User: Fold this.
Amino acid sequence: MVRIRGVVLPDKKQAVYALTLIYGIGFALAKKILSQAKIEPNKKVDQFSEDELKKIINILDKEYNVEGDLREKINSNIKALRDVGSYRGVRHIKNLPVRGQRTRSNARTKRGKRKTVGALKKEAWAKVEQSTQKAATKTK
Assistant:
């Protein structure tokens, strides 16, 4: 069981794919890190020696923001946009898409479940009418 930056890497995976589990490292960056550390990309994680692990950790510490540091940096950038009152900051505040996507027909992931306004289906409308009729007969 190998732990890098608080992330447990699965033993049976190849090094290239295991490194992508760390937030901020994609496939291309994982290959680049392994080539800098002079480690075979197809090597399994459980076959790493202590020296190879130390090389990877040193490269990550010196050159790249990953995991918690990267999350903090991103959140501080978003907070700065909000504080300045920029267009992107306002979109973050309103929980809407930031990068120019349309919101009329899409953006369900960002905006959440649909909230129907105004229109009722026939069955729902019939229930509303029945309840108002019952209320009217009780008052008589």
Observations:
- DSSP finds seven helices and two strands in the chain.
- The CA atoms of residues 88 and 100 lie 10 Å apart.
- The mean pLDDT is 88.
- The domain at 2-63 is CATH 1.10.8.50 (Helicase, Ruva Protein; domain 3).
